[in-house]
Amino acid sequence: MDGTLVGLCAFGAVILLLGLRVPIAFALAGVATVGTFVMFAFRTGAFAPERAVRPTTSLVFSNSFDLIHSYDLSMIPLFVALGHIAYRADITTKIYHAARVWLARIPGGVAIASVVGCGGFSAITGSSIACASTMGRICSPEMLRMGYDKRLATASVAAGGTLGSLIPPSVLFIIYGIFTETSISSLFLAGILPGLLSLLGFILVIYVWVLRDPSAAPRFTGIITTREKFAAALDAWPAIALFTIIVGGIYGGFFTATEAAAVCVSAAVAIGFAQGKLTVKALIEALRETCVQTTAIFLIAAGAKIFVAFIALTGVAGEIVQVVTDAQLSPFMLLAAIAAIYLLLGMFLDPIGIMVLTLPLMVPLVETYGFDLIWFGVVVIKLLEIGLITPPVGLNVFVIAGVVGKEVPIDRIFAGILRFLSVDVIVLILIMAFPIISLLIPGSM
């Protein structure tokens, strides 16, 4: 049986199952298992199922076993736990409160503080959905109560939440690094400048929005003393310390990414108990949520690993590389086509599903063109980040809609998101045109 045909049918089947809301792990593993069985059963031409059982089970179990015993995978539960513990210890929200105090007098100051708070939250948790959900509960209701434009009050947090995908640590970077066998530490460092560039772009959108339409954000009329400002900044020191451990430790060569995660978890627990913000009950609840979230990620990763092995068996990746090579596409045209595919899929699928589905095909292509896989990883994560706020199924938008309820219709949130999307596209073009933006920090190690 033609392996290329089986591989292409498998991709179509996975996309169909994901569209029907079948869990990603089951869709990938199920299609890969059936596809592998079919490949081996028809190997000699005639259908011989007895010959397919042993190689199929071997491929499924060996790849799952190898993945679960991957050292790099151990940092996922550590960073997930760090996010939950830091939130319950009131560490992640302190950056928002500090920014809220310092930026109060700037036009749109609370919205800008929300984006800055999302950036700070992302620098610890590594999850865009968690960032949007948590900061949405804190920021959006406050802005709505103050009389902010409903579009600005919701869209700023939905867009700011996407920073969790790019600013290290990032779960998506970890999964990308495992499946492409690239340095996760280098990926973390590569995401810093693009993440800050996105953050500055969002701040600029808010500032120009309020400058052109002052009614979108009421002016702050209260009094904030210098003492209150420094007190708020001092309260944010735990979050800054944890981010410094992650980035400074990795950049300075003191820690690997996994070691940095372990040190930060220990530090967050110690700080939480020392400040009286963390209780044993809260710690147990954080660990319970960590187990649930980590299990889901591990199942997806295992299903993806099986699917990648199946795609390698079919040879479809090599065929696609050959077709693209024969077409003699320029690097620009190839990148434009890849971006279009990711943006299209981002309208309907979640980021992890898109990444594990497309990487088996995209990585051989970019390697053929000599692109740097670290830089390409940043491009992919940025595209996935854009997908989180792209209609009609922008996950972050639906998260914020769930937080604010009927007070703000979802079409109003998407109306505000369009301004942030325009900046996201500009940042994406800059990252693609100037790889040095991504490679400067990891290249200077």
From TrEMBL:
Annotated membrane topology: Multi-pass membrane protein
Assigned keywords, A-Z: Cell inner membrane, Cell membrane, Membrane, Transmembrane, Transmembrane helix, Transport
Pfam families in the cross-refs: DctM (PF06808)
GO molecular function terms attached to this record: transmembrane transporter activity
Domain (TRAP C4-dicarboxylate transport system permease DctM subunit): residue spans on this chain: 11-435
Positions of transmembrane segments: 68-87, 152-179, 185-210, 230-254, 296-317, 329-349, 361-380, 386-405, 417-441
One Gene Ontology cellular component: plasma membrane
InterPro entries: DctM, TRAP_DctM
Principal location listed in the UniProt entry: membrane
Domain of life the protein comes from: Bacteria
Subcellular location(s) per record: Cell inner membrane
Chain's role: Part of the tripartite ATP-independent periplasmic (TRAP) transport system.
PANTHER family for this protein: C4-DICARBOXYLATE TRAP TRANSPORTER LARGE PERMEASE PROTEIN DCTM, SIALIC ACID TRAP TRANSPORTER PERMEASE PROTEIN SIAT-RELATED
Subunit structure: The complex comprises the extracytoplasmic solute receptor protein and the two transmembrane proteins.
Family stated for the protein in its record: Belongs to the TRAP transporter large permease family.
Name of the molecule in the record: TRAP transporter large permease protein
